[in-house]
Amino acid sequence: MAALPDFSYFLPTEVRFGAGCFNELGACCRALGRKPFLVTGKRSARAIGALDRAVAQVPNAVVYDRAEENPTTGQCDAAARVCRESRCDVVLAIGGGSPMDVAKAVAGLALNDGACAAFIGADLFTEGALPIIAVPTTAGTGSEVTPYSVLVDTAEQQKRTIKGRALFPRVALLDPELTASLPADVTAYTGFDALSQAMEGLVSRKRTAVGDILALEACRLVRQWLPRAVSVPGDLEARGGMLLAAMLSGCVIAQSGTTLVHGMGYYYTLRYGLQHGLANGLLLAPVFRHNAVHLPETVASMASALGHTGPAGEAGSAITRALHALFEACGVSRAARDAGVDEHLLADFARDCYSDPYRFKNQVGELTEDDVLRFYRESWRGV
Ligand code: NAP
Fold first, then answer.
1. Which residues, including other chains, have CB under 8 Å from residue 319's CB and lie 6 or more apart?
2. Whose CA is nearest to atom 39 of ligand 1?
3. Is 298 in the pocket of ligand 1 (CB under 6 A)?
4. How many angstroms does the Cα of residue 143 sit away from the middle of ligand 1?
5. What radius of gyration do the chain's Cα atoms show?
6. Rounded CA gap, 313 and 290, in Å?
7. SS3 119
8. For 27-49, what is each residue's pLDDT tens digit?
9. Distance separating alpha carbons of residues 376 and 383, to the nearest angstrom
10. Burial label, 86 (beta-carbon count in 10 A; 0-12, 13-18, 19+)
11. 86 contact partners, CB below 8 Å, separation of at least 6
12. 134-177: per-residue pLDDT in tens?
């Protein structure tokens, strides 16, 4: 065996998993603070009864139920003002990645003077952050175990990341019952996000030996449970399998970051409103055929975890077959054109993406703008 590369792996979040564990929110919250600030989205938490159940457990919570999809720095500034004025000392997030990311930014802004956009970057919350409890109601982002808050910078209109150890939630409550209400399409899209994070973590320049193990298991779980979670919404075993996969994928990217797939996918989301996980999923096959050239054994191992074995020399075609089969099993077209993306804008996306070195930070292989355009074109055609 080749010598293991050096790595460090840090994950301070207590993860509690199980149907019904949402009922532990009140006790967890009282252990961390006296006055909670509860962040959630506009509709779903109320619709599924999670908001009422939370308020029953933490009756003095100040509720901010306006977190938008793909939240902005401006929205976080507004939410943080309410949190500060209410003198809250613990932040609860109930929802998908969007409310969780708002909650994390608010937790930091509550203790640090300045506008949210000023904290884009790494470890700029020098005064730390309020303790965070995260309760995911989608199974995709793994944000409940990451040190990131991903936001649209209001001025720049680009997705940017606030990163900091203080943003790791103290507790994550993973209750599969809360994800049973996800519609089939959101189930599939968020599942693609978990897969994308696991796959990108495996090829990132910052990959770790621990992350590799978790990522392969996340790929295996996605293959096993995602099609079933999509087709049988109330199957709590499948929902649990996907929550686990998403959390594992979060543990992976918490160390390794993401790669070019995420960097390219943001253009689909910001221009066309494609759900984050779908945007990434549509780019996986093209970018991973490239990754297979540089890391054939690694890509072959993830294709194998997805049920498509083959020699390392054919890793590109094995991963393509595995991804196409997964999209088909989930009833989702793998062509970005079917999601409403216009072909004539692909060159603009490629140019803009290529001009931003941040998007290539963790990406293996030297790439040209033409390569990026080719990936977009292949994603558009679904090949
Ligand atoms: P989301 O934007 O949080 O939610 C998508 C949709 O699903 C919303 O309409 C939401 O409704 C609805 N929804 C949520 N839970 C539901 C449930 N149980 N039943 C029915 N509907 C439900 O989606 P997401 O994919 O989880 O998060 C994507 C965001 O996370 C992106 O902004 C992405 O950049 C970010 N992200 C962050 C990290 C990180 O580490 N920080 C990692 C990956 C991605 P409501 O709005 O009404 O709640």
1. 285, 288, 289, 292, 299, 300, 302, 303, 306, 308
2. 143
3. no
4. 10
5. 20
6. 13
7. helix
8. 999 999 999 999 999 999 999 99
9. 11
10. middle
11. 35, 37, 62
12. 999 999 999 999 999 999 999 988 999 999 999 999 999 999 99
As given in the structure block, the two tokens for residue 251 are 């543990």
148 and 166 in contact (C-beta within 8 Å)? no
As beta bridge partners, residue 161 has 150
Question: Does any ligand 1 atom lie closer than 6 A to the CB of residue 182?
Answer: yes
Task: Identify the pLDDT of residue 2.
Answer: 61
The pTM of the full predicted model, rounded to 2 decimals, is 0.97
Q: Where are the domains of the chain?
A: 14-178, 182-381
**Mutational pocket test of ligand 1: of 94, 173, 186, 270, the residue with most ligand atoms within 8 Å of the beta carbon:** 186
Task: Name the residue at shortest CA distance from atom 40 of ligand 1.
Answer: 143
Minimal-distance CA residue to ligand 1 atom 2: 69
Q: Rounded to an integer, what distance in angstroms lies between the CA atom of residue 125 and that of residue 115?
A: 11
Q: For domain 182-381, give the fold.
A: Dehydroquinate synthase-like, alpha domain (1.20.1090)
Handedness of CA 340, 345, 346, 350 (dihedral sign): negative
pLDDT at 270 over 80: yes
Alpha helices in the chain (DSSP H): 25-32, 44-47, 50-57, 73-85, 97-109, 184-203, 209-231, 236-256, 260-272, 276-294, 296-305, 315-329, 346-354, 369-381
User: Would the CATH topology of 14-178 be identical to that of 182-381?
Assistant: no
14-178: CATH number: 3.40.50.1970
**Within its chain, how far is the Cα of 308 from the centroid?**
25
Atom of ligand 1 nearest to the CA of 67: 46
The single-letter DSSP state of residue 34 is S
Ligand 1 atom nearest the C-alpha of 159 is: 34
